[in-house]
Amino acid sequence: MKLFKKIASLLAVSALALTFAGCNNSQESGDNGSPDNAGNSGNASFKTVDQIKESGEVTIGVFSDKNPFGYVDNEGNYQGYDVYFAERIAKDLGVELKLVPVEAASRVEFLETSKVDIILANFTVTDERAQKVDFALPYMKVALGVVSPESAEIKAPEELNGKTLIVVKGTTAETYFTENYPDVKLQKYDEYNEAYSALQDGRGDAFSTDNTEVLAWAKSNPGFAVGVESLGSIDAIAPAVTKGNETLLKWLNEEITALGDEQFFHKDYDETLAAVYGDDEAYKENLVVEGGKM
Question: Could you tell me if residue 41 is inside a domain?
């Protein structure tokens, strides 16, 4: 009887050891990025191009409040430069388009948690973001701008020292001023509508975001001016996919290259941005990127 108990105890210990070994092997396999659509972390899943086509739908994250790039009009329809591109992507994939509203700070998370297949939300390419998502070729270029009341116009970033600057969380403006102008007080908001309301209400001295956007906003809001039209480096705006989704990344790069042959993004500008910025060819060339070539 004692011998039987000893044998049973040894068997139990062995089984427990094998269980832990199996768990460790499973975790290591996931961390090594085995071909299970798990991306780099083993936690995020994604749909390949074939799976998107089989599902009959591509899900693309866009802004709903960033006119004229991604916004919802008075009739409840999505409009803008990014939306125009999203519609072409769905058409060329041969699937239906599902647009999902995102905020600046949620763009990475929406890819990591598979809420969307692609982000087309004025997404500036940065080294930090490229560690978390995969960027395709660019389709637009941008710098930062600063808009303020004409009665107290800010014409240089140094004039903001000791003053309050409104920014949207998760944007390059937040990063740029945090790193380069520590004496500027940042007032942060989740959404662009909230940020512009804060500027109009006088809760801050100025607002900084992409220069393309503040220039458009100031044109339609008398009493405000863009005193700083270009700040920081000229950066690329590009689509982003979940880290490791190589088939969709390859398809997007080929799509952007092919669209360059027909000057698609110049047409996109004419359809969605010309009414705001005008037909100035020099300005168009400073914004539009064709074929992924900056």
Answer: no
CA–CA dist 240, 103 (Å, integer): 15
Helices (H), the chain: 2-31, 49-55, 81-93, 107-112, 127-130, 172-180, 192-200, 211-219, 246-261, 264-272, 274-277, 281-287
Same-domain check for residues 253 and 169 = no
- Do residues 147 and 229 share a domain? yes
Round to the nearest angstrom and report the end-to-end CA distance of the chain.
81
CATH code: domain of residue 280: 3.40.190.10
Residue in 154, 144, 280, 142 with CA at minimum distance from that of residue 225: 154
As to burial, measured by CB atoms within 10 angstroms (0-12 exposed, 13-18 middle, 19+ buried), residue 111 is: buried
Does 176 map to a domain? yes
pTM: 0.79
Residue 216 structural domain = 143-235
Strand partners, 225: 148
20 burial level (CB within 10 Å; 0-12, 13-18, 19+)? exposed
Q: Average pLDDT for consecutive 10-residue bins of the chain (294 residues)? A: 40 38 34 37 76 98 95 97 98 98 96 97 96 98 96 98 97 97 98 97 97 91 96 96 98 98 97 88 89 96
Our count of domains for the chain comes to 2
Strands 118-119 and 57-62: parallel
Angle at 214 (CA atoms; ends 211, 218), nearest 5 degrees: 140
pLDDT (0 to 100) of residue 157: 97
Same domain as 121, residue 56: yes
